[in-house]
Amino acid sequence: MCSVVRRAWRLGAVVFALFAGAVFAGDAGAPDAGGYDPGSGFFMAPGYQAAIAHCTACHSAQLVIQQGQPRGGWMELIEWMQSEHGLWQIPQPQLNELLDYLSAHYGPGRPHFGRNE
Q1: Model-level pTM greater than 0.90?
Q2: What's the pLDDT at 23?
Q3: Do residues 21 and 54 make contact, with C-beta atoms less than 8 angstroms apart?
Q4: Which residues pair with 43 in a beta bridge?
Q5: Cα–Cα dist 13/114, whole Å
Q6: What is the pLDDT of residue 33?
Q7: How far is CA 93 from each of CA 5, 50, 63, 84, 96, rounded to the nearest angstrom?
Q8: 25: closest CA among 105, 97, 104?
Q9: What is each CA distance from 58 to 19, 35, 85, in whole angstroms?
Q10: From its phi and psi, is residue 5 left (phi > 0), alpha (psi between -120 and 50) or beta?
Q11: DSSP code of residue 37
């Protein structure tokens, strides 16, 4: 892929993630827990909107779900993607929410891995 197309794609992904983050951050009607999001397959609990906004801009939810990382492992993956693959900076409140969500629902025990019902 040529560098111009790659940069345009990254810019589009960043704009999408920022827009989606702003939309989901203001969504007071979002479910607190239970069930699976039909669009992404993520377990619906606080933080799943951040996972949609910041993870699925580049990856399928299934790729994220299968990782099974503890909180520190998720942070290392995010930092690696930022340094090596141009992932944008995630604002601090969303970063903590994202790390809490991923480590609770897709950590080493992965209580919701393979259970998209």
Answers
A1: no
A2: 42
A3: yes
A4: 36
A5: 27
A6: 59
A7: 31, 10, 24, 23, 5
A8: 97
A9: 15, 24, 10
A10: alpha
A11: -
